[in-house]
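Troubleshooting: if your tokenizer reports a length mismatch, compare your output against this known-good record of 164 residues.
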Amino acid sequence: MPSKPQIESPRSAESATDTPLDQSKLQSLVGYNLRQAYVLNITPFFRKRMAKYQLKPVEYTILALLKANPNINQKRLSQAINVSPPNMATLLDRLETRDLLSRQRNPLDKRSQTLVLTPEGLRVCTKAEKTIEELELEATSALTDAERIELLRLLQKMSMPKAE
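Known-good structure output:
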């Protein structure tokens, strides 16, 4: 039985482990760079600093939106952060169990419910906001203030709904 031909490598296996990988193609991609920046600079800071509040990024997002927009309904919140209704229901149940938010009858439409922060939810959210501000500054410390502002502007521009 003939053996498979060996593909010769320009580098030996040992020397290949000593040299950095060629990422030039990936580094030309916006999505790759966004993901790398998030994974390497935001996630570790978030996990470490937000552990004391027991909040995941999406849970913090929900609390922050409810603080800024009291009495919104689940559908509107779900659309704002692009979370499917079943997943949103699960997230809200978890936050409600922790007494961070409550569902209340909509006074304008008794068939629907609105979402509001509880006093504990407001307390946790307010403290978490301060922590987030600090960790964002640390995570983006390689940027000047002007660069940070420009990065936010560009990311928000990319996030704008496209005109059809």
